[in-house]
Amino acid sequence: MPHNDIASANQTIDKEIDALNIMRKTLDENLVKALDVMQNIKGRVIVTGMGKSGHIGSKIAATLASTGTPSFFVHPAEASHGDLGMLTEDDCVLAISNGGESKELSDIIVYCKRYGIPLIAMTKNPESSLGKAGDYLLRLPDCGEACPLGLAPTSSTTATLVLGDILAIALLERKGFSKTDYKQRHPGGKLGAFLRKASDLMHSGEEMPLVSDSAGMQETLLEMTSKMLGCVGIVDKDNHLKGIITDGDLRRFISCDILTKKATDVMTPNPKTTKPDTLVAEAINFMNTKKITALFVVDDENRPLGLLHMHDCLHAGVA
Q1: 118, 21: one domain
Q2: Is the pLDDT of residue 176 over 60?
Q3: Domain for residue 193, yes or no?
């Protein structure tokens, strides 16, 4: 009979969900105490673990670091050959071992005890060497693996990863970590582009297409053409934005006497605007919703600070 891959996949999912449900029921005050330590230390969270626990630990350290908790991973074998010098008395250590008996962790455990470095133990076995040595125990579910042989780390690594995410998210929320903070740690790639603000991409100063509300259409067309952004803003004597003229407006008003008109005769009044601290991703969504390609960026007095164009968002890799 052929092997049913879909049935196997569903069985694996079910077993890993079972592990998470068990872990949900065993969360206790040790989690709160561990978070208190991780939040209040002056140094870094040093994550360590061997084998698959180490691979998950590397990801946990990276997630912590990217969400406002300085952290890095130290390989336990390398620690025994000089990398223990990376640990300071201002740090805390998060040591991961599903069974709690990874002998490679012994030197780090001894070092923590010798120098009074808080040790957070993440293991399923509170009676293990790691479980007993830890100042705080974050218990992993003892429910077997999804692997039909009961050997390959599967359910245990999923639970470890989730418990690491629990720590990172709780610390993020405790510290009031913002989108701006996140952006500063993710300047590259598409994610970094999405987290940029309108003020980062807008055309400002002399690049902004603007005319006064007393301007005629000849002056307006020259300004619009020279700035090559497909629109022009109309401002009053106090530099408040009154309206906008776009390529679409020109097509609707095209006539032989258009040059005899004033900008205010052709403009669309009260144009859609945004603020300088608006995320580019939000501005793009707004432009798509309103079916427009440009937004004036204004201050609290509705004075234009810049112009954000969809083409600039595309060029930055956001849209």
Answers
A1: yes
A2: yes
A3: no
Give residue 138's pLDDT: 97
192 belongs to a structural domain: no
At residue 1 the predicted structure's pLDDT band, cuts being 50, 70 and 90, is very low
Check: pTM over 0.70? Answer yes or no: no
Residue 188 lies in a domain: no
- Distance between CA atoms of residues 74 and 104, nearest Å: 12
Q: How far is CA 161 from CA 67, 96, 118, 184, in A?
A: 15, 11, 21, 24
Question: Number of folded domains in the chain?
Answer: 2
- Tell me whether residue 184 is in a domain: no
Q: Using CA atoms, how far apart are residues 229 and 207, in angstroms rounded to an integer?
A: 9
CATH number of 296's domain: 3.10.580.10
Q: In the listed set 177, 209, 239, which residue is the last one of a domain according to the structure?
A: 177
Domain extent at residue 20: 5-177
Nearest to 111 by CA among 141, 80, 138, 137: 80
